[in-house]
Amino acid sequence: MARGDTKRRRSIVAWTFENRRTGGLTIAQVPNASLIVFIVAAAASHIVPSGVWRDTTLVAMYGGLLVWAGDEMIRGVNPFRRALGAVVAGATIASLVLR
């Protein structure tokens, strides 16, 4: 492997994962409010019986996930986080359409 190839690979990784605010590498972050809503609603959807309450938890679950994904696409700290938001939004919408 040539020295330039290694340098180029590092620059691609840095560009993809570098946090634009801190300069560090960011892959995962502490969950924000919308992701916490998703997690709590997903757990609750397995506990509550079917009916209105289950439908409510599913709306909160999908809504929280879509809000999180949209936030990542708009305000993600690096291209990886923005792409992750786009993939999650697309998968969530596809899941809802196919439901």
Mean pLDDT: 92
Low-confidence stretches: none
**Count of β-strands:** 0
Structural class: mainly alpha
Distance between the termini: 48 Å
As a whole number of angstroms, the C-alpha radius of gyration is: 18 Å
For the report, how would you describe the main beta sheet?
none
Strand content: under 5%
State the helix count: 4
Number of domains: 1
Shape designation: elongated
The residue fraction in helices comes out at over 70%
Order of helices and strands: HHHH
Sum up the structure in keywords.
0% strand
Can you give a write-up of this model?
73% of the residues lie in helices and 0% in strands. It is mostly helical and 99 residues long. It has one domain. The termini are far apart.
SSE topology sketch:
Blueprint: H1 3-17, H2 33-45, H3 52-75, H4 79-98
Helix pairs in contact: 2-3, 3-4
Write a brief structural summary.
This protein has 99 residues and is an all-alpha fold.
